[in-house]
Design a protein that fits this description.
The complex is a heterodimer of chains A (430) and B (408). Helix content of chain A is 54%, strand content 4%. Chain A is built from 23 helices and 6 strands. In chain A, β3 and β4 form a beta hairpin. Chain A is globular, with a radius of gyration of 23 Å. Chain B is an alpha/beta fold. Chain B has 2 domains: 285 residues, 3-Layer(aba) Sandwich (Alkaline Phosphatase, subunit A); 46 residues. Helices cover 34% and strands 14% of the residues of chain B. In chain B, the strands form 2 sheets. In chain B, strands 1, 5, 6, 7, 8, 9, 10, 11 and 12 form a 9-stranded mixed sheet that branches. The chains are: A mainly alpha (430), B alpha/beta (408). The interface between A and B is large, with 50 and 48 residues.
Chain lengths: 430, 408
């Protein structure tokens, strides 16, 4: 008999540090015990699941043709790629046998939230995605250095308009407010001076290539957070990231997304991040006693819900018959990869639990169930099917309310799956 | 009475005309508590409709100082002349003549009927030029301290849970409607059709909360309960979808008009129009958008105007900021500061409020602020929603006086 707290902790491990269990995985991990399960979930190794990943070409589209007919085809292709790059990433999240790295990349995408609605082209977004994956579990100093030279991010925050004679504060402000320090840890003067340090970087929109023009850079010494010197993107990033507030801020941001949006992290967590080692920090979070305590629920965002359901049903998103309709349903629920609503990223918890999301979620669940593999349910006797659904989906425990509801559909595995994917205990990771 | 008027249908269904015994078997106490709130909104209860313009609407090409030499000189190739604006409304200040953008004929008729107020030069101290930050400031109603709750959300916080009280016409939560404890309901323009059977009936069992639920799991169950409460009321009301050719705002306001006409117990509606971030080739794009705005609101007020609720509805229109006085090199304008806020309805005392900012005395190239938007919010909270604005706006104590006429 497994302790309820083991089931809870494992459910959190596989959903929050992974992207939901594949069929059979939850019970298998449970049998091995929590320490072994944690090691597997947090492992970084060659991922055989990704052998099945098909990456469509995201070429440099070059400038738009002036001929109207060719122009129409060009923009149609740009639009199609902006969807397919999001579907490609969800394929990756679904196929991975070791999804920890994808889960972290997903976190960082929400942190350095950049939207293709402004960037327009898939290629720069994919390059950013690869940069985030490279540094997802590395050192934050390196990640931040790479991001201040990332074409999609610079373009998104009006970097090309930020020139010595006419500075634009967008990147300077958001870098400190949302990416590194948090509000209240800098002044408006720091914002203005940091903007000057970021001047002179231009972006080629279609390739994402970043060029530096010394003539457009402010070469005078500026004073940022008490340090006066001539700054460039990397030296500025290094200086700001070296501030103690950065350790607190990043520790809080990870805690917020992995443990709780309402309970503050222990003060000791920032200490773990003194060397800016992301891997150390996330491992400390995964081992925090909060993982076993009941009050730390988190709602799944639409993409997290969709990916975990797709993994359970062995559905590859790009192979669904109508991937445009799939995208539309996710957009309607308010979340699609590479389309955060603003540089502040996506909302959390209660914001996803709206009445308006329900019809879209039900339809999406139906698409998945119609196209998915229901073997985990069809292979068990009726009397055990409701519990089998919890084990299959990695749900710690159905409430008696949900059990009663699921009991209505024990003779129809498809219907049972459809209900289970819409159960409160599956929308929220208890 | 409209055939889809919910007040009888719903009221009978929930209040026991079908028999108390049956009801006890069918509904839990939660359902009964829920049902108690589903009472029709009495005629004469004021309703606020908030229209958000995303992207930063150019105030100067909406309420246009078309004779001001500084307007013409700052906007070569993208200023509107006398033939592109409507007959002058009067002067905002210092004899600056103002006229509406030529596409806004509906607003012109509201103005003539004394039902349109234009609050000139509205923003907040030290305006923020980031879309994100400035929209957050307007939606939270908090320019100084960064907070996460919306100002209408805080209005909901002070009242019992009722999924109908504030409705946003969209699929995802508008921050405006998110309080600390309560959240307004979001409804897509197409309504909330209950799922096919038997799923529809089966899914409904998830709506009950369980003592085993954590707070968030209970919220998930609650969203399902809200869905069914809203769906059964709104599906008949919203069954006649507006023509697809209507502008997005017209479609949203058509849904709102249908709900208001059916006496749905909603005090606040939130709708929006996007596309105002006109950094390049502004003229054609912005003209079209303000035209849609004017057409949609005028049609909405006309539709509601034929019902007993004609005097109940007040519409408020705002954007996160106006735009720079000086055009940029691409026949567009960059992010700016103050801009006019519009307030329309039968109970609105039409005319100019505030003061038109000077085009020559600028702060770092931007318009000065004459009215704090919290004054407008306070008028909406106190004179439309009948609640203490200070409690919701961090002790803010002033408002735009006499903007809303007392109930007759």
């Amino acid at each position: 008999m497994t302790a309820a707290s083991d089931r809870l902790e494992l459910s959190r491990l596989v959903h929050r540090f992974g992207l939901g269990p594949k069929p059979g995985e939850y019970l298998q991990l449970l049998a091995g015990g929590i320490p072994q399960a944690r090691a597997k979930v947090l492992a970084r190794r060659f991922d055989p699941g990704l052998n099945a990943l098909v990456t469509p070409p995201f070429p440099n589209m070059g400038p738009a043709p002036s001929d109207p007919t060719a122009g129409l085809a060009y923009w149609k292709e740009v639009g199609a790629q902006s969807l397919s790059v999001g579907v490609w990433w969800m394929d990756r999240m679904v196929l991975a046998d070791y999804p920890f790295i994808e889960r972290m990349t997903w976190f960082w995408h929400g942190h350095w939230a950049t939207s293709i609605t402004k960037v327009s082209y898939a290629l720069p977004m994919k390059i950013q995605n690869e940069t985030l994956r490279t540094h997802a579990l590395g050192n934050f100093v390196d990640m931040s250095r790479a991001m201040v030279k990332d074409g999609a991010l610079i373009y998104w925050l009006d970097g090309p308009e930020n020139v010595a004679y006419s500075p634009n504060e967008n990147l300077g402000r958001e870098f400190m407010e949302l990416f590194t320090l948090g509000v209240g840890n800098y002044s408006q003067t720091d914002v203005h001076q940091a903007a000057l340090g970021f001047t002179g970087y231009d972006v080629d929109m279609t390739s994402g290539a970043v060029t530096f023009d010394p003539k457009m850079h402010d070469n005078s010494a500026v004073s940022v957070l008490g340090k006066r010197q001539v700054f460039h993107a990397v030296s500025l990033s290094d200086w700001i990231v070296s501030r103690p507030e950065n350790a607190k801020f990043i520790a809080r941001r990870l805690w917020f997304r992995f443990i709780s949006t309402t309970v503050e992290p222990p003060a000791s967590l920032a200490k773990v991040f003194e060397q800016r080692d992301i891997s150390l920090l996330i491992n400390a979070i995964a081992r925090n006693p909060a993982m076993r305590r009941p009050q730390y629920s988190q709602a799944k965002s639409p993409v997290e819900w969709f990916v975990s359901a797709s993994r359970a049903l062995r559905v590859t998103p790009s192979k669904l018959p109508e991937s445009a309709a799939l995208a539309w349903l996710l957009f309607s629920m308010g979340q699609f990869p590479f389309n955060p609503p603003s540089v502040g990223g996506w909302p959390s918890d209660e914001a996803w639990l709206t009445a308006a999301a329900i019809p879209y979620r039900v339809n999406l669940a139906n698409v998945l169930v119609q196209n998915g593999d229901l073997a985990p349910l069809t292979s068990v006797p009726k009397a055990k099917i409701v519990q089998a659904a919890a084990d299959w989906l990695g749900v710690a425990q159905w409430s008696t309310r949900t059990e009663r509801a699921l009991n209505q559909a024990v003779s129809d595995p498809k219907q049972l799956a459809l209900l289970a994917l819409n159960a409160p205990e599956y929308l929220v990771n208890a | 009475m409209s055939p889809c008027d919910f007040n009888r249908r719903q009221f009978l269904k929930y209040t026991g005309a079908a028999g108390a015994a049956t009801m006890a078997a069918t509904f839990s106490m939660d359902d009964v508590a829920q049902a108690a709130s589903v009472t029709p909104l009495p005629v004469g209860t004021p309703i606020l409709v908030i229209v958000t313009l995303y992207g930063g609407n150019d105030g100067l090409n909406t309420v246009v100082p078309y004779l001001d030499p500084a307007y013409l000189s700052n906007r070569p190739g993208m200023s509107l002349d006398a033939s592109q604006v409507l007959p002058p409304l009067g002067s905002g200040s210092d004899n600056v003549v103002l006229a509406l953008n030529g596409t806004m004929t509906g607003f012109q008729s509201l103005w003539t009927a004394n039902k349109l107020a234009i609050v000139l030069g509205t923003s907040y101290p030290n305006p923020n030029l980031s879309h994100f930050s400035s929209m957050a400031i307007w939606q939270t109603g908090s320019p100084v301290e960064e907070i996460s709750s919306g100002w209408i959300g805080r209005y909901l916080d002070g009242l019992p849970h009722d999924p109908f009280r504030a409705i946003g016409i969209d699929s995802t939560l508008t921050p405006l409607l998110a309080g600390n404890r309560r959240v307004g309901s979001m409804v897509p323009v197409s309504g909330l059709q209950a799922p096919w059977e038997p799923l529809g009936t089966q899914l409904k069992h998830f709506a009950k909360s369980s003592h085993q639920d954590t707070a968030l799991v209970a919220d998930a169950a609650g969203s399902i309960a809200d869905f069914y409460a809203l769906s059964s009321t709104l599906t008949p009301v919203l069954k006649n979808a507006p023509p697809a050719s209507a502008s997005p705002l017209a479609q949203q306001l058509d849904a709102v008009a249908n709900m208001i006409t059916a006496n749905v117990p909603t005090r606040v509606y939130s709708v929006s129009l996007s596309g105002f971030d006109t950094h390049a080739d502004e003229l054609s794009q912005q003209n079209a958008l303000v035209g849609q705005l004017s057409d949609a609101i005028t049609a909405f007020l006309t539709q509601v105007g034929t019902t007993p609720r004609a005097d109940d509805v007040v519409v408020m229109v705002y954007s996160e900021f106006g735009r720079r006085v000086e055009a940029n090199g691409g026949h567009g304008t960059d992010h700016g500061t103050s801009a006019p806020v519009f307030v329309a309805g039968n109970r609105v005392a039409g005319g100019f409020y505030g003061e038109q900012p000077s085009l020559t005395q600028l702060v770092q190239g931007d318009l000065v602020v004459h009215v704090d938007f919290r004054d407008v919010y306070a008028s909406m909270l106190e004179d439309v929603l009948g609640t203490d604005a200070g409690k919701i706006l961090n002790n803010w104590s002033t408002k735009v006086n006499n903007l809303i006429k007392p109930v007759a």
